[in-house]
Amino acid sequence: MADQKQQQTDRPIDHPMDRPTDRPTDRPTDRPDETVSEWLARRESLLLGPYAARTENSRGRQRPQHTSALRTEYQRDRDRIIHCQSFRRLMNKTQVFLAPVGDHYRTRLTHTLEVSQIARTMARALRLNEDLTEAAALGHDLGHTPFGHAGEVALRVCYDPTFAHYRQSLRVVDRLENDGQGLNLTWEVRDAIVNHTGSQLASTLEGVLIKYADRIAYINHDIDDACRAGILRPEDIPADLCRVLGNTHSARINTMVSAVVEASEGKPVISMTPEVQDATDRLRTFLFERVYTNPVAKGEETKAKELVKTLFGWYTEHPDRMPALYRRLMEEGEPVGRCVCDFISGMTDRYAIETYEELFVPRVWRGLHE
Asked: What pLDDT is stored for residue 140 in this prediction?
Protein backbone atom coordinates (compact mmCIF):
# COMPACT_ATOMS: atom_id res chain seq x y z
CA MET A 1 0.00 0.00 0.00
CA ALA A 2 2.82 2.40 0.80
CA ASP A 3 4.36 1.72 -2.62
CA GLN A 4 1.02 2.41 -4.31
CA LYS A 5 0.63 5.71 -2.46
CA GLN A 6 4.16 6.69 -3.42
CA GLN A 7 3.44 5.92 -7.09
CA GLN A 8 0.28 8.03 -6.97
CA THR A 9 2.14 10.92 -5.32
CA ASP A 10 4.87 10.84 -7.96
CA ARG A 11 2.41 11.02 -10.88
CA PRO A 12 2.58 14.16 -13.04
CA ILE A 13 -0.24 16.55 -12.24
CA ASP A 14 -1.66 16.18 -15.75
CA HIS A 15 -1.91 12.42 -15.60
CA PRO A 16 -5.26 11.26 -17.12
CA MET A 17 -6.35 9.79 -13.77
CA ASP A 18 -6.06 13.23 -12.17
CA ARG A 19 -8.43 14.87 -14.62
CA PRO A 20 -12.14 15.37 -13.91
CA THR A 21 -14.24 12.39 -14.93
CA ASP A 22 -17.40 14.32 -15.88
CA ARG A 23 -16.10 15.21 -19.35
CA PRO A 24 -13.90 13.58 -22.05
CA THR A 25 -10.26 13.91 -21.11
CA ASP A 26 -9.16 15.26 -24.49
CA ARG A 27 -11.92 17.79 -25.13
CA PRO A 28 -11.48 21.56 -24.65
CA THR A 29 -13.07 23.18 -21.63
CA ASP A 30 -13.69 26.62 -23.09
CA ARG A 31 -16.40 25.54 -25.56
CA PRO A 32 -18.75 23.12 -23.79
CA ASP A 33 -21.38 23.29 -26.56
CA GLU A 34 -18.90 22.37 -29.29
CA THR A 35 -19.55 19.07 -31.06
CA VAL A 36 -16.79 16.50 -31.49
CA SER A 37 -16.61 17.15 -35.23
CA GLU A 38 -16.32 20.90 -34.66
CA TRP A 39 -13.55 20.32 -32.15
CA LEU A 40 -11.77 17.99 -34.60
CA ALA A 41 -11.95 20.65 -37.30
CA ARG A 42 -10.58 23.24 -34.89
CA ARG A 43 -7.81 20.86 -33.90
CA GLU A 44 -6.86 20.59 -37.57
CA SER A 45 -6.23 24.33 -37.69
CA LEU A 46 -3.87 23.99 -34.72
CA LEU A 47 -1.97 20.84 -35.68
CA LEU A 48 -1.83 20.66 -39.47
CA GLY A 49 0.88 22.28 -41.52
CA PRO A 50 0.33 25.21 -43.89
CA TYR A 51 -0.04 23.01 -46.98
CA ALA A 52 -2.45 20.45 -45.51
CA ALA A 53 -6.02 20.05 -46.71
CA ARG A 54 -8.40 21.15 -43.98
CA THR A 55 -11.91 19.83 -43.63
CA GLU A 56 -13.34 23.33 -43.44
CA ASN A 57 -11.91 24.10 -46.89
CA SER A 58 -13.31 20.99 -48.60
CA ARG A 59 -15.02 21.52 -51.94
CA GLY A 60 -17.83 19.37 -50.61
CA ARG A 61 -19.89 16.51 -51.97
CA GLN A 62 -21.84 16.02 -55.17
CA ARG A 63 -25.03 15.82 -53.13
CA PRO A 64 -25.47 17.99 -50.02
CA GLN A 65 -26.07 16.19 -46.75
CA HIS A 66 -26.22 16.88 -43.05
CA THR A 67 -23.01 17.04 -41.06
CA SER A 68 -21.95 14.58 -38.38
CA ALA A 69 -21.58 15.53 -34.73
CA LEU A 70 -18.82 12.95 -34.20
CA ARG A 71 -16.75 12.78 -37.40
CA THR A 72 -15.16 15.12 -39.90
CA GLU A 73 -16.16 14.74 -43.54
CA TYR A 74 -12.98 12.89 -44.44
CA GLN A 75 -13.51 10.49 -41.55
CA ARG A 76 -17.00 9.78 -42.85
CA ASP A 77 -15.55 9.05 -46.29
CA ARG A 78 -13.08 6.60 -44.75
CA ASP A 79 -15.88 4.79 -42.93
CA ARG A 80 -18.09 4.62 -46.02
CA ILE A 81 -15.29 3.02 -47.99
CA ILE A 82 -14.47 0.46 -45.30
CA HIS A 83 -18.12 -0.60 -45.07
CA CYS A 84 -18.79 -0.87 -48.81
CA GLN A 85 -19.02 -4.15 -50.68
CA SER A 86 -16.23 -3.33 -53.14
CA PHE A 87 -13.79 -2.96 -50.26
CA ARG A 88 -14.63 -6.43 -48.92
CA ARG A 89 -14.20 -7.99 -52.36
CA LEU A 90 -10.59 -6.81 -52.48
CA MET A 91 -9.59 -9.70 -50.22
CA ASN A 92 -10.14 -12.13 -53.11
CA LYS A 93 -8.61 -10.06 -55.90
CA THR A 94 -5.12 -10.61 -57.27
CA GLN A 95 -2.17 -8.46 -56.30
CA VAL A 96 0.62 -10.26 -58.22
CA PHE A 97 -0.14 -13.98 -58.08
CA LEU A 98 -3.47 -15.06 -59.56
CA ALA A 99 -5.88 -16.58 -57.00
CA PRO A 100 -3.01 -17.68 -54.73
CA VAL A 101 -3.55 -20.75 -52.58
CA GLY A 102 -1.09 -19.84 -49.82
CA ASP A 103 -2.42 -17.84 -46.87
CA HIS A 104 0.48 -15.40 -46.78
CA TYR A 105 0.48 -13.95 -50.28
CA ARG A 106 -0.75 -10.39 -50.63
CA THR A 107 -4.15 -9.75 -52.09
CA ARG A 108 -5.56 -6.45 -53.30
CA LEU A 109 -6.97 -5.91 -49.79
CA THR A 110 -3.73 -6.43 -47.89
CA HIS A 111 -1.99 -4.23 -50.44
CA THR A 112 -4.56 -1.51 -49.75
CA LEU A 113 -3.99 -1.76 -46.01
CA GLU A 114 -0.23 -1.48 -46.46
CA VAL A 115 -0.67 1.57 -48.68
CA SER A 116 -2.88 3.14 -46.02
CA GLN A 117 -0.36 2.51 -43.25
CA ILE A 118 2.56 3.93 -45.24
CA ALA A 119 0.55 6.94 -46.42
CA ARG A 120 -0.64 7.77 -42.91
CA THR A 121 2.90 7.57 -41.54
CA MET A 122 4.11 10.07 -44.13
CA ALA A 123 1.06 12.33 -43.67
CA ARG A 124 1.59 12.46 -39.92
CA ALA A 125 5.28 13.27 -40.28
CA LEU A 126 4.51 16.04 -42.80
CA ARG A 127 1.61 17.42 -40.74
CA LEU A 128 -0.87 16.67 -43.51
CA ASN A 129 -4.45 15.51 -43.07
CA GLU A 130 -4.33 11.86 -42.00
CA ASP A 131 -8.07 11.34 -42.39
CA LEU A 132 -8.08 12.48 -46.01
CA THR A 133 -4.96 10.42 -46.68
CA GLU A 134 -6.44 7.30 -45.12
CA ALA A 135 -9.75 7.58 -46.96
CA ALA A 136 -8.04 8.00 -50.32
CA ALA A 137 -5.64 5.12 -49.65
CA LEU A 138 -8.43 2.74 -48.67
CA GLY A 139 -10.43 3.64 -51.77
CA HIS A 140 -7.70 3.84 -54.39
CA ASP A 141 -8.09 0.30 -55.77
CA LEU A 142 -11.82 -0.32 -55.35
CA GLY A 143 -12.25 -0.55 -59.12
CA HIS A 144 -9.46 -3.03 -59.75
CA THR A 145 -10.39 -5.98 -61.95
CA PRO A 146 -10.08 -9.67 -61.15
CA PHE A 147 -6.64 -11.11 -62.00
CA GLY A 148 -4.92 -7.79 -61.40
CA HIS A 149 -3.57 -5.93 -64.38
CA ALA A 150 -4.24 -8.93 -66.65
CA GLY A 151 -7.96 -8.34 -66.19
CA GLU A 152 -7.45 -4.64 -66.80
CA VAL A 153 -5.67 -5.35 -70.09
CA ALA A 154 -8.45 -7.72 -71.17
CA LEU A 155 -11.15 -5.10 -70.58
CA ARG A 156 -9.18 -2.60 -72.62
CA VAL A 157 -9.30 -5.06 -75.50
CA CYS A 158 -12.93 -6.10 -75.32
CA TYR A 159 -14.52 -2.94 -73.89
CA ASP A 160 -12.55 0.29 -74.22
CA PRO A 161 -8.84 1.00 -74.85
CA THR A 162 -9.01 3.79 -72.27
CA PHE A 163 -10.29 1.56 -69.45
CA ALA A 164 -8.17 1.99 -66.32
CA HIS A 165 -8.65 0.71 -62.81
CA TYR A 166 -8.22 4.16 -61.26
CA ARG A 167 -11.07 5.60 -63.32
CA GLN A 168 -13.12 2.52 -62.50
CA SER A 169 -12.43 3.13 -58.80
CA LEU A 170 -13.97 6.58 -59.15
CA ARG A 171 -16.99 5.07 -60.92
CA VAL A 172 -17.38 2.58 -58.10
CA VAL A 173 -17.62 5.27 -55.43
CA ASP A 174 -19.65 7.65 -57.61
CA ARG A 175 -22.13 5.30 -59.27
CA LEU A 176 -21.97 1.62 -58.41
CA GLU A 177 -21.75 1.36 -54.65
CA ASN A 178 -24.72 1.72 -52.30
CA ASP A 179 -27.03 -0.05 -54.77
CA GLY A 180 -26.31 2.41 -57.54
CA GLN A 181 -26.46 5.55 -55.41
CA GLY A 182 -22.71 5.87 -54.91
CA LEU A 183 -20.94 6.82 -51.69
CA ASN A 184 -21.19 10.58 -52.24
CA LEU A 185 -17.60 11.18 -51.16
CA THR A 186 -15.91 14.54 -50.83
CA TRP A 187 -14.24 16.07 -53.87
CA GLU A 188 -10.77 15.74 -52.36
CA VAL A 189 -11.05 12.00 -51.72
CA ARG A 190 -12.46 11.40 -55.20
CA ASP A 191 -9.67 13.46 -56.74
CA ALA A 192 -7.02 11.48 -54.85
CA ILE A 193 -8.55 8.14 -55.88
CA VAL A 194 -8.68 8.88 -59.61
CA ASN A 195 -5.20 10.44 -59.65
CA HIS A 196 -3.32 7.87 -57.58
CA THR A 197 -1.48 6.60 -60.65
CA GLY A 198 -0.58 7.92 -64.06
CA SER A 199 0.85 11.31 -65.04
CA GLN A 200 -1.89 13.45 -63.51
CA LEU A 201 -1.25 14.54 -59.92
CA ALA A 202 -3.94 14.93 -57.29
CA SER A 203 -4.84 18.46 -56.26
CA THR A 204 -3.94 17.91 -52.59
CA LEU A 205 -0.62 16.86 -51.11
CA GLU A 206 -2.50 14.09 -49.32
CA GLY A 207 -3.61 12.76 -52.69
CA VAL A 208 -0.10 12.90 -54.10
CA LEU A 209 1.13 10.93 -51.08
CA ILE A 210 -1.06 8.01 -52.21
CA LYS A 211 0.94 7.75 -55.44
CA TYR A 212 4.16 7.42 -53.45
CA ALA A 213 2.68 5.12 -50.82
CA ASP A 214 1.22 2.85 -53.50
CA ARG A 215 4.58 2.41 -55.17
CA ILE A 216 6.50 1.97 -51.92
CA ALA A 217 4.03 -0.68 -50.80
CA TYR A 218 3.88 -2.78 -53.94
CA ILE A 219 7.60 -2.68 -54.72
CA ASN A 220 8.43 -4.03 -51.28
CA HIS A 221 5.63 -6.52 -50.71
CA ASP A 222 6.01 -7.88 -54.24
CA ILE A 223 9.65 -8.67 -53.44
CA ASP A 224 8.49 -10.47 -50.31
CA ASP A 225 5.86 -12.47 -52.22
CA ALA A 226 8.25 -13.29 -55.04
CA CYS A 227 10.77 -14.67 -52.54
CA ARG A 228 8.01 -16.67 -50.87
CA ALA A 229 7.04 -18.10 -54.26
CA GLY A 230 10.64 -19.10 -55.01
CA ILE A 231 11.05 -16.97 -58.13
CA LEU A 232 13.36 -14.47 -56.44
CA ARG A 233 15.97 -14.58 -53.70
CA PRO A 234 16.93 -11.63 -51.49
CA GLU A 235 20.50 -11.87 -52.76
CA ASP A 236 19.27 -11.40 -56.34
CA ILE A 237 18.56 -7.74 -55.66
CA PRO A 238 21.47 -5.70 -57.07
CA ALA A 239 24.01 -4.85 -54.38
CA ASP A 240 24.16 -1.17 -55.30
CA LEU A 241 20.42 -0.86 -54.68
CA CYS A 242 20.72 -2.60 -51.33
CA ARG A 243 23.45 -0.18 -50.26
CA VAL A 244 21.07 2.72 -50.84
CA LEU A 245 17.75 1.20 -49.80
CA GLY A 246 18.69 -1.50 -47.29
CA ASN A 247 18.86 -5.27 -47.22
CA THR A 248 15.51 -6.07 -45.60
CA HIS A 249 11.84 -5.44 -46.22
CA SER A 250 11.47 -3.06 -43.29
CA ALA A 251 14.74 -1.25 -44.03
CA ARG A 252 13.72 -0.52 -47.62
CA ILE A 253 10.32 0.82 -46.59
CA ASN A 254 11.87 2.96 -43.88
CA THR A 255 14.42 4.37 -46.34
CA MET A 256 11.79 5.23 -48.94
CA VAL A 257 9.34 6.73 -46.47
CA SER A 258 12.08 8.76 -44.79
CA ALA A 259 13.23 10.01 -48.20
CA VAL A 260 9.74 11.31 -49.00
CA VAL A 261 9.46 13.06 -45.64
CA GLU A 262 12.93 14.58 -45.92
CA ALA A 263 12.36 15.88 -49.45
CA SER A 264 8.82 17.16 -48.81
CA GLU A 265 8.94 18.64 -45.31
CA GLY A 266 7.84 22.27 -45.26
CA LYS A 267 7.26 22.35 -49.02
CA PRO A 268 4.10 22.64 -51.14
CA VAL A 269 5.07 19.58 -53.20
CA ILE A 270 5.66 15.89 -52.51
CA SER A 271 8.90 14.35 -53.74
CA MET A 272 11.65 11.90 -52.78
CA THR A 273 15.35 12.57 -52.30
CA PRO A 274 17.16 12.06 -55.64
CA GLU A 275 19.42 9.16 -54.63
CA VAL A 276 16.57 7.13 -53.12
CA GLN A 277 14.22 8.03 -55.98
CA ASP A 278 16.76 6.74 -58.51
CA ALA A 279 17.31 3.52 -56.55
CA THR A 280 13.56 3.03 -56.15
CA ASP A 281 12.97 3.47 -59.88
CA ARG A 282 15.73 1.00 -60.71
CA LEU A 283 14.36 -1.51 -58.20
CA ARG A 284 10.97 -1.23 -59.88
CA THR A 285 12.58 -1.87 -63.27
CA PHE A 286 14.33 -4.91 -61.77
CA LEU A 287 10.96 -6.26 -60.59
CA PHE A 288 9.44 -5.85 -64.04
CA GLU A 289 12.27 -7.90 -65.47
CA ARG A 290 12.33 -10.60 -62.80
CA VAL A 291 8.79 -10.79 -61.41
CA TYR A 292 6.09 -8.87 -63.31
CA THR A 293 7.00 -10.48 -66.65
CA ASN A 294 8.28 -13.75 -65.17
CA PRO A 295 6.72 -16.71 -67.05
CA VAL A 296 6.39 -18.67 -63.80
CA ALA A 297 4.62 -15.90 -61.90
CA LYS A 298 2.54 -14.86 -64.89
CA GLY A 299 2.08 -18.22 -66.58
CA GLU A 300 -1.70 -18.18 -66.11
CA GLU A 301 -2.27 -14.59 -67.25
CA THR A 302 -3.08 -15.55 -70.85
CA LYS A 303 -5.83 -17.83 -69.60
CA ALA A 304 -7.09 -15.12 -67.25
CA LYS A 305 -7.31 -12.60 -70.09
CA GLU A 306 -9.22 -15.01 -72.29
CA LEU A 307 -11.56 -15.82 -69.42
CA VAL A 308 -12.39 -12.13 -68.93
CA LYS A 309 -12.89 -11.60 -72.67
CA THR A 310 -15.17 -14.62 -72.90
CA LEU A 311 -17.28 -13.50 -69.95
CA PHE A 312 -17.55 -10.03 -71.43
CA GLY A 313 -18.77 -11.41 -74.76
CA TRP A 314 -21.30 -13.72 -73.13
CA TYR A 315 -22.82 -11.10 -70.84
CA THR A 316 -22.96 -8.60 -73.69
CA GLU A 317 -25.20 -11.08 -75.49
CA HIS A 318 -27.11 -12.02 -72.33
CA PRO A 319 -27.30 -8.81 -70.24
CA ASP A 320 -30.47 -10.07 -68.58
CA ARG A 321 -28.35 -12.62 -66.73
CA MET A 322 -26.47 -9.96 -64.77
CA PRO A 323 -27.48 -8.96 -61.23
CA ALA A 324 -30.34 -6.51 -60.73
CA LEU A 325 -28.11 -3.46 -60.21
CA TYR A 326 -26.59 -3.68 -63.67
CA ARG A 327 -29.91 -4.40 -65.34
CA ARG A 328 -31.34 -1.33 -63.64
CA LEU A 329 -28.41 0.79 -64.84
CA MET A 330 -29.20 -0.29 -68.38
CA GLU A 331 -32.84 0.67 -67.90
CA GLU A 332 -31.63 4.10 -66.78
CA GLY A 333 -29.78 4.54 -70.06
CA GLU A 334 -26.29 3.17 -69.39
CA PRO A 335 -24.83 1.29 -72.41
CA VAL A 336 -24.77 -2.49 -72.21
CA GLY A 337 -20.98 -2.65 -72.59
CA ARG A 338 -20.52 -0.17 -69.78
CA CYS A 339 -22.68 -2.25 -67.43
CA VAL A 340 -21.02 -5.51 -68.40
CA CYS A 341 -17.63 -3.91 -67.74
CA ASP A 342 -18.86 -2.75 -64.33
CA PHE A 343 -20.08 -6.24 -63.46
CA ILE A 344 -16.92 -8.06 -64.56
CA SER A 345 -14.47 -5.57 -63.09
CA GLY A 346 -16.19 -6.02 -59.73
CA MET A 347 -15.72 -9.79 -59.74
CA THR A 348 -13.17 -11.48 -57.52
CA ASP A 349 -10.74 -13.95 -59.06
CA ARG A 350 -12.61 -16.95 -57.70
CA TYR A 351 -16.05 -15.68 -58.62
CA ALA A 352 -14.88 -15.05 -62.19
CA ILE A 353 -13.45 -18.57 -62.41
CA GLU A 354 -16.58 -20.14 -60.92
CA THR A 355 -18.84 -18.14 -63.25
CA TYR A 356 -16.80 -19.21 -66.26
CA GLU A 357 -16.98 -22.87 -65.18
CA GLU A 358 -20.72 -22.63 -64.66
CA LEU A 359 -21.28 -21.11 -68.10
CA PHE A 360 -18.76 -22.97 -70.26
CA VAL A 361 -17.46 -26.12 -68.56
CA PRO A 362 -19.81 -29.12 -68.95
CA ARG A 363 -20.66 -31.08 -65.85
CA VAL A 364 -20.06 -34.80 -65.69
CA TRP A 365 -23.30 -36.79 -66.07
CA ARG A 366 -23.79 -39.02 -63.06
CA GLY A 367 -27.29 -40.28 -63.72
CA LEU A 368 -30.58 -39.38 -62.11
CA HIS A 369 -30.04 -41.38 -58.92
CA GLU A 370 -26.49 -40.34 -58.05
From this structure: 97
Do 85 and 220 fall into the same domain?
Answer: yes
| Same-domain check for residues 163 and 140 | yes
Give the 3-state secondary structure of the chain. CHHHHHHHHCCCCCCHHHCCCCCCCCCCCCCCCCCHHHHHHHHHHHHCCCCCCCHHHCCCECCCCCCCCCCCHHHHHHHHHHHCHHHHHHHHCECCCCCCCCCCCCEHHHHHHHHHHHHHHHHHHCCCCHHHHHHHHHHCCCCCCCCHHHHHHHHHHHCCCCCCHHHHHHHHHHHHHHHHCCCCCEHHHHHHHHCCCCCCCCCCHHHHHHHHHHHHHHHHHHHHHHHHHCCCCHHHCCHHHHHHHCCCHHHHHHHHHHHHHHHHCCCCCCCCCHHHHHHHHHHHHHHHHHHHCCCCCCCCHHHHHHHHHHHHHHHHHCHHHCCHHHHHHHHCCCCHHHHHHHHHHCCCHHHHHHHHHHHHCCCCCCCCCC
**The predicted structure's pLDDT at residue 12:** 40
- Low-confidence spans in the chain with pLDDT less than 50: 1-25, 29
pLDDT at 104: 87
Output the pLDDT for position 1: 42
What pTM, to 2 d.p., does this model score?
A: 0.89
pLDDT at 101: 67
Q: Tell me how many domains the chain contains.
A: 2
Assigned domain for 140 exists: yes
